[in-house]
Design a protein that fits this description.
Order of helices and strands: HHH
Shape: elongated
CATH class: Mainly Alpha
Family: Belongs to the bacterial ribosomal protein bS20 family.
Number of strands: 0
Protein name: Small ribosomal subunit protein bS20
GO molecular function: small ribosomal subunit rRNA binding; structural constituent of ribosome
Organism: Weissella muntiaci
Radius of gyration: 17 Å
CATH superfamily: Ribosomal protein S20
Number of helices: 3
CATH topology: Methane Monooxygenase Hydroxylase, Chain G, domain 1
InterPro entries: Ribosomal_bS20, Ribosomal_bS20_sf
Distance between the termini: 54 Å
Largest sheet: none
């Protein structure tokens, strides 16, 4: 455990930030998985799920959870799945 007060505060903040980041990463991954499963099942609402997934990717990239290039690459791959 840290002894210095600023180190204690930093440790507390790191915990809070990590919890927030993990939940946001999980939400983005969930949206992408929903879209991929819908593509495999041949669902009707693919366009809506694609918009949700791409929005989640953009949100994760803007918050610094994933790199901009990764978000762009993943969106491109999802769009290719949509157009198949």
């Amino acid at each position: 455990m840290p002894i210095i007060e600023s180190s204690i505060q930093r440790a507390r903040l790191n915990k809070i930030q990590r919890e927030r980041n993990v939940s946001q990463l999980s939400a983005y991954r969930t949206e992408v998985k929903k879209f991929r499963k819908a593509v495999e099942a041949g669902s009707d609402n693919l366009q809506e799920l694609f918009l949700n997934a791409s929005s989640a990717l953009d949100r994760a990239a803007s918050k610094g959870l994933i790199a901009k290039n990764k978000a762009s690459r993943d969106k491109s791959r999802l769009a290719a799945l949509l157009n198949k």
